[in-house]
Batch of 3 targets.
Target 1
Amino acid sequence: MEVLTLLEVIAVLWVTYLVVTWWLERGRLSQLTDKTVLITGCDTGFGNLLARRLDQLGLRVFAGCLTEAGVAELRQSCSERLQPIQMDVTSSDSVEAAVRVVKEAVGSKGLWGLVNNAGILGVAGTMEWATKGDYQAVLNVNLLGMIDVTNKFLPLLKKSRGRVVNVASLAGRFSTATAVPYSVSKYGVEAFSDSLRRSMTFFGVKVHIIEPGYFRTEISNLEVVLRRLDHAWQRQSSETKAEKGEEFLQAAKDAMVARERLKQDPAAVVDAMEHALCATHPRSRYVVGWDARFMLIPISWLPTDLGDLAGKLTAPPKMRPTPVCYKDGQ
């Protein structure tokens, strides 16, 4: 009876927490037109969609684009409030130039929001297929670039007691056997964001993590991913190819094609980003997508051995190494 009573108390407290949180999260900031936000990675995908959304809401937006084409496209299709700027997060000179532009525009008001969205997938394939250069290329954009941008814009964010929104991934909570450099970078994003959030509480700057599942964006473009997979395979040694086998490569391609039907509408991620910037009581962490919320993130909570078993059981049967070392009874 005492155990039942305790469970009832826990259930009531949990439901109360959910109701209060739901109510608080409904609140929206007033005077959004006074807010200025910088977003990186606005050529396509989440960043592009968020820039348009915030522009429609009346915020002043600086949209960082890697390419001139991205700058031109946003300048043509958005209002004068949105200012696209060419910005390479891997170049400190480029980031510093962006800081000067934004600082001149916001003056003493400071910067309300920084959205670190720029990211690349990098090489596709198993861990052995990726070189040190592959890891470095992904880390330069997804992690080191994010850190550099954040550090350089922090003085402007402190002035307004603003918000930092960092785009991580479910791959930063559950690392799979493919796209390993990407997952390594996103684990780093999680660690950096947690440290930043705890440090910035003393300055009134809030830090929010977005953890999307599998969404329909340019980073997951099937044609590009398959091309990178072929490129990674072709540069492997004959021993590696024999170990994996052509069946492995084809199974990997088939799995990527099959995942196409699982891609979700990126608007859900943009909704989370908007809430992090515009809500009176935003969340510290947003898990977005049914695959992240109900599958992979829960698997990450399991004991390590059980999580590994779940990952193994869900992998396509043909995506397993050919045991060449045990052939012919050896």
Note: The chain has one domain: 30-217+264-313.
Target 2
Amino acid sequence: MFVSLAWLWGGAFVAIEMGLGSVPPLWFAGLRYLLAGAVISGVAAATGRFKPKDRNEWLSVGVVGILVVAGYHGLLYLGTTVISGSVSSVIVSLSPVLTTVAAGLLLADESPGIVDGLGLLFGLAGVVVIADPGGSSVPLSGVALVFVGVALFASGSVGLRALESELPAAALQGWAMLLGSLVLVGGAVLRRESFPVHVARGESALPFVYLVLGAGVLGYLTYFELLSRVGPVRVNLVAYLEPVTAAMGAWAVLGRAPTTTTAAGFLLVACGFVLATVENPLEKLGIGGSEEVVRSDLSENGSVEIHYAD
């Protein structure tokens, strides 16, 4: 599920860049999530509970709809009008760091350990290498827009976990997409963007369909399922893999081959990903030294917790 999500969302950066050549940004994002939200809402209504039942669940819809759908994607699309999709994906790679900071402030059980921090540093180093800040001129306005969007995404992920909503993932996604699309369309009207009559025809058609059904419907169903299983810090580490899949997609579709510098950055990102996600990676490599088991406890969920002494 994790690798599939990386491919779905990495490919979305290529599709966004392709579609923005002929469609205004906020209309593009708003129409995408209006259609995706309608599909997901239909699935949710047909397969289980759809309507939020209390204040906490409505708050969850508001957090995801405004911060994750409207805030993040609106700023991402606006930023990608002046920088490439590949550069946008690199900036989005910072979301694990921002999510870790937000989770540390709001969720006591999500505080990162030393190895997690080392993994995040490796990932940041890879992001810097991939971005190659000294190699080309990247408009700071585009970088700033995408960065603020990523901060909203991270805040929304942690806020949703803190609310502990019991609303099914499909229902939450459907409501949030519909709410977010209304905010995005409202922004498009305020910016006086022209309505894209031909969004489903011509060169924008294929990217639009992919963004609605692939990255939108399938991608977010996968994301919320992972969020419920592993928490916001670990699930947002998917952003470390998105520059890899985005670069490979740009190579396959746009003919933009990755450079040696990019490949080196990918290796650093991979190292950071392993350190931040694999449990006790140093011990598994035989680096942790000898240890003696001093006690074992049975945790509340039935798993055995082993405690060691060096």
Note: Residues 2-309 form one domain.
Target 3
Amino acid sequence: MKPINDHLKENLDLLFVGFNPSIRSSETGHHFANPNNRFWKILHEAGLTPRKFVTTEDYKLLDLGYGMTNIVARPTKAADEITKEEYEAGRTELLRKINLFKPKIVCFVGKGVYQQYSKKRTILWGKQEESVVPGVIDFVAPSSSGLVRMKLEEIIEIYAELPKLLSQSRDELE
């Protein structure tokens, strides 16, 4: 299985960080490609995209100022297959990417992703009080996996905070 390409550029408004690619993502070369993953639906319904994108359009998020990466590059069937060493190496690499590309907001797609990144155990949904990288807003959202037991409406409600944060950060820059 091969890793998939990040979609990154400098000064992104928003960077999405997942656990790692699924087997389906590895096969297709696109993020959130598993048909049971609700990422694209959530983004649209939360007001982050003008329409529901399909997985093969993942690179088009760059046109909206959004990027994509994962904390671990190796594809697996499930996140519980990721080793402690892979998370540690992935955390170091993710810190490097965030410091290099300087996104305004980093949205961690799953509490577990943020726990591995921040080394914090107790985490609330949404904007975090204190960010790991100064000057970057850390935002924690539920995983978009179909395995998540939260109601889709509740997940969308959390992601819907992102357009508000983006608007605030743009206002602060003007």
Note: Residues 84-101 form the longest helix (18 residues).
